[in-house]
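## retry 2 of 3
previous attempt timed out at serialization; input unchanged, resubmitting
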Amino acid sequence: MTLSNAHSNLRSAVLVALMLAALVAAGSGVVQRLVPGWQPLYLVTACFLIGLEAGIVHYVARSQRLTFTELMRYLAPEIFIMAVVMRIIASLGFADAPLAESLTRWLYDPLAVFDAAFGAHMLTGLLTGALAHLAMRDLSTLAPLPRAPGDEERRLEALVAADRSLALERIGSRFMMGGGVLLLALAGEAVNTNVSGGSPRPLAPLSI
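## retry succeeded, writing output
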């Protein structure tokens, strides 16, 4: 792939990561209402980095034509590092106890690592990575084709026309679903559950 293609893929990865992190940020307002005291900025930042990393991994796998086994070897340490980071930020987000105390407790009771907060953070991270991969796949399908002479170019364009159409449909569907999730999250945060018919509650700065 050319240098211009690499720059284009990097810009796409950054854009996808920003969109996914923004969606997590909007949804965090509802969680904050249900779990007072939770600090979502750690998770939003981690999801941006996960989305960016997933986009770069997709680009590397595509450019190097990695097999599924090779890709899994590439992803295994990435997922392990993500699990460690999610465990740490899950504790920092709640701050029930100093991190040093939590590390000591996990040393003597390893199963204590796997609590509900870690599970929710890990699930969010995995979902962010999967969505980033799917978005990068469709954007790669829509990328301009290399020029080919005459009839060969027309045959190549005919072969990818259907794939591009399906990619556009998938992108449009995800935009609609993301917009629906965004509206539901903001509505859930703004609705006043304390007073029937009361004025909407203000949105958190991070949600905005």
